[in-house]
Design goal:
Elements: E1 2-7, E2 16-20, H1 22-25, E3 33-38, E4 42-52, H2 77-89, H3 94-101, E5 110-116, H4 128-139, E6 145-146, H5 147-154, H6 159-168, E7 171-177, E8 185-191, H7 198-207, H8 212-227, E9 236-237, H9 238-241, H10 246-257, E10 261-267, H11 289-298, E11 314-318, H12 322-338, E12 342-346, H13 359-367, E13 371-374, H14 380-392, E14 397-401, E15 413-419, H15 437-448, E16 452-456, H16 461-468, E17 473-475, E18 488-492, H17 493-498, H18 510-521, E19 525-529, E20 538-541, E21 558-560, E22 565-567, E23 574-576, E24 596-599, H19 603-613, E25 619-622, H20 624-627, H21 630-641, E26 647-650, E27 663-668, H22 671-675, H23 682-697, E28 702-706, H24 712-719, H25 722-736, E29 743-751, H26 754-768, E30 787-788, E31 791-800, H27 806-823, E32 831-836
Length: about 850
């Protein structure tokens, strides 16, 4: 008897063992997917992580593996090793890593489906709800319903009626495993081999003189083949050969019956469909190596780069020239592909939608079919096809993606690139594992024995400290042109408001509006940064002073004027803008100003104020709300690329847009709100945002509105000396014992009862404190947002010396988490979340 150790995508400790049926015993391999039963009824798709012929020493009866969906492994040994490290370092369950790592379409799980017994006869009168349920099932004529779908159809929960029908035998429940992924197929038609030469095809046409419709359809096929310069043996999509009318279909059926045409279903590839610079290969013709090399030669950039491919385990490419940085990274990518290796290229621009001037389009133009893209905005089909392509082949390629691309099954990985390594988007916040892509990339480099290149114009303080410590090789160019000084104009908003030059409900000062007007007059674009989305972050009642808050979270609702909705940016709850205050119920007098007033500025409100000042200007707003629409994003990028915008206003999303050297100025309307974010990295992120915005846009002048014009941050920004700024930041962090001079772990306790979260947090702290260095554990903290999705939150912050063993702290935290439930039964009602290296 053979046994399989299976990892299941659930937040549970460890793995589970199953018996392999005889017919599967020889087929099973570590890394294969398998469908297994779990619990009383459920079925899950897991990954085999071990095989043994010895019965595991467990006092249980082993269930059997139900199905092996694949013939070959979907997961490599290096992936399994990486998952094990992730689970240990980020203190989470192995099943949580599996659920994050593998596309959900490859991990189908069972769902409960309802089957109606058509022969059922009631032995007593049915209730109204029971009869309604049966009517829906009977009208469905064999349609498969889940309980949720059935409840939606009836418009209510009807649990009592549903349970009664199960007990009566009218309906039965079954578990069904259904994959979300289905490859796209299309019917292709091919000329029979007998007629695949010009001579035999001509003879065929002569034989069909008395069938003019069949002859005309054959001639149409020949025209399509000739237009594309394809051989007679080529397959052709049936939809191109015949029109929608029944006559063409009848004619085609006759030719098929005569065995002149043969049909076949061909699976369509999603890998390059819709990619800019790539032809959709409708005919299934294969690209040859010569065309690949020709595309590479034609795509060579004109800018000169000189650095050889790094050999050090970790390197930092540090330059102030974005174009030169990208050219060097692409040159290294092409070099690895020419040598037959794989490249993982992580970039925040990987999932950028629309536009022909994107990193994806530039890489596609140079790498052709060697480029694969993999990120959250791809379809399930595309993600699965990329996964299978890498799992079953070691052909040279480059994968462009974000965090999720780290988990792909590489076999021949020779280079890992993390572009703009300082970006906060590389940190996964939820769900577990709460990993940082940069850290995982370094671990992958060790597993694959390949170099990891970090690249940035504004590197993070952590990586610059690694360079200073000699743990990271610095790559830079002596001739790198640095812009030493920013032409910075500081606008003192506090002073202007005291002098009543700016109203308290206004945000555009006279110097700023004058600068924007002058920029538009010079046919240049003004860029305005307002780093909040929506119209206003708060709605306050002037009568009772209450803010309109989310019903699920301890946070104010953001007003989105364009949709007329109040939205919670934490849980997604929304409601229409009310006419009266929900707290005091006071209604405004007829014609009087409403008691509910928007407070603060978002990008929408700034857009409205700009339109009031510049009614004839072309104004474009870009924020994450707009970016959710592919159509709107493509339209916006088209306007930017065609220089059709006078004023661009938005959140930090505007940082990476195509500017075409047409920017006349950049303005920051509320610097204080950016610097005032409660995070020890707030100043670093603000400097990176403004520094990159100025360098990318090429703007000659930066306007900053602030209530604190004497802030030293502004003088360092004026000089544009990023290294001096980071040195100062690192000195302060060392003084106050913050990363990179300590290891930080945040522990959150989430419960439906506030007192319970508080009590368990104190118990956890009491258990930890005796085993930790003095003053390394904080008091129990109440976060700024202390309730999210109806869960109250308390937190502990752990700051440990770098010399403290990672495995020791992991074992300590795990042991406390395991011991507390035995001592405190209520602990099971509290969710404990570990965030290692939090942002």
């Amino acid at each position: 008897m053979r046994y399989a150790e299976v990892l299941i995508p659930l937040a549970l400790e460890g793995s589970f063992h199953y018996r392999l049926p005889e017919e599967m015993a020889d087929k099973a391999v570590v890394g294969m997917r398998c469908v297994v039963p779990f619990g009383a009824k459920r079925y899950y798709t897991g990954i085999i992580i071990g095989l043994t012929d010895t019965r595991p020493h467990l006092q249980v009866s082993f269930k059997e593996v139900m199905l092996l969906p694949d013939d070959k492994p979907s997961v490599t040994a290096s992936q399994l090793s990486l998952w094990q490290w992730l689970s240990a370092y980020y203190i989470c369950m192995p099943g949580e890593v599996l659920r994050t790592a593998v596309p959900s379409a490859l991990l189908p799980e069972s769902r409960t489906v309802i089957h109606y017994d058509t022969d059922f006869v009631a032995d007593s009168k049915l209730s109204t709800e029971e009869q309604e349920l049966l009517d829906i099932l009977e009208a469905g004529k064999g349609k498969t319903y889940t309980l949720d779908a059935l409840q939606r159809a009836i418009g209510k929960r009807a649990i009592k009626a549903f349970t009664s029908l199960v007990e009566r035998g009218a309906i039965r429940l079954e578990e069904e495993v259904k994959s979300r992924y289905k490859p796209k197929t299309e019917v292709f038609v091919r000329l029979d081999a007998t007629y695949q030469s010009e001579e035999t095809f001509g003879t065929l046409l002569d034989s069909l003189r008395r069938a003019p419709k069949q002859s005309a359809l054959l001639l149409h096929w020949a025209e399509l083949i000739s237009e594309r310069d394809l051989p007679y043996s080529s397959p052709m999509p049936l939809r191109l050969l015949i029109n929608a009318d029944d006559h063409d279909r009848t004619t085609f059926a006759a030719l098929r019956k005569k065995k002149i045409f043969r049909t076949e279903a061909i699976t369509l590839s999603e890998l390059h469909a819709g990619t800019i610079g790539q032809e959709f290969r409708l005919w299934g013709a294969e690209e040859n190596e010569e065309s690949d090399r020709r595309e590479e030669d034609e795509g060579q950039a004109t800018e000169k780069v000189s650095s050889p491919l790094p050999e050090a385990p970790i390197s930092l490419l540090y330059t102030h020239d974005f174009r030169r940085k990208e050219e060097q990274l692409l040159a290294w990518t092409e070099e690895v592909i020419r040598e037959g290796g794989e490249v993982l290229f992580l970039s925040p621009e990987a999932n950028k939608r629309g536009g022909c001037n994107s990193l994806t389009s530039r890489m596609a133009a140079r790498l052709g079919s060697r480029l694969l893209t993999y990120h959250a905005f791809e379809t399930d089909a595309k993600r699965v096809e990329v996964w299978n392509r890498l799992a079953l082949s070691d052909e040279p390629c480059a994968v462009l993606g974000m965090r999720s691309a780290l988990f792909l099954p590489f076999h021949n990985l020779h280079l890992i690139i993390v572009d703009e390594e300082q970006e906060y988007l590389y940190k996964q916040q939820d769900p577990a594992p709460r990993f940082h892509a940069r850290q995982v990339a370094v671990r992958m480099g060790k597993l694959h024995n390949c170099p990891v290149v970090l690249a940035s114009v504004t590197p993070s303080g952590e990586i610059l400290q690694q360079v200073r410590d000699g743990n990271c090789q610095l790559i830079t160019w002596p001739d790198d042109e640095v812009r030493p000084v920013f032409d910075l104009e500081i606008i003192d908003m506090g002073k202007m408001r005291k002098q009543r030059q700016v109203g308290f409900d206004e945000l555009l000062s006279f110097p700023l509006t004058a600068a924007i007007e002058d920029t538009i007059r010079r046919k240049k674009m003004a860029v305005v940064l307002q780093n909040r989305r929506g119209f206003a972050p708060y709605i306050i009642c002037n009568a009772c002073g209450e803010k309109l808050r989310c019903i699920h979270c301890d946070v104010s609702l953001t007003y989105h004027k364009r949709t007329g909705m109040l939205v919670c940016h934490y849980c997604g709850y929304s409601r229409p803008y009310p006419s009266i205050c929900p707290s005091c119920k006071q209604q405004s007098q007829a014609g009087a100003r409403s008691t509910l007033q928007p407070v603060g500025f978002g990008a929408e409100r700034m857009e409205e104020e700009l339109k009031a000042h510049f009614p004839h200007a072309s104004i474009l707003r870009m924020d994450s709300d707009m970016a959710m629409s592919r159509t709107k994003m493509e339209e916006a990028l088209g306007r930017l690329e065609n220089n059709e915008v006078d004023i661009l206003v938005g959140t930090q999303l505007i940082k990476g847009q195509p500017y075409n050297d047409n920017v006349g100025m950049v303005a920051v309307t509320q610097l204080d709100s950016i610097l005032g974010f409660p995070d020890f990295r707030a100043y670093e992120r603000a400097f990176q945002l403004l520094y990159q915005l100025m360098l990318r846009s090429g703007a000659p002048k930066l306007y900053v509105q602030t209530n604190n014009p004497d802030n030293p941050f502004l003088e360092i920004l004026r000089r544009g000396d990023y290294r001096a700024f980071v040195r100062k930041q690192l000195e302060e962090r060392q003084m106050f014992f913050f990363p990179p001079y300590c290891r930080m772990i945040r522990i959150e306790f989430r419960a439906s009862e506030e007192q319970l979260a508080e009590r368990i947090a104190h118990d956890f702290a009491s258990s930890l404190k005796p085993h930790l260095p003095q003053e390394s554990l904080s008091q129990v903290l109440i976060p700024a947002v202390s309730r999210i999705r109806n869960a109250f939150i308390r937190a502990l912050l752990l700051r440990l010396p770098l010399s403290f063993s990672v495995s020791a702290i992991r074992n300590l935290l795990s042991s406390v988490r395991t011991a507390l439930p035995a001592r405190t039964p209520e602990y099971k009602r509290v969710r404990v979340v570990f965030d290692v290296d939090p942002l």
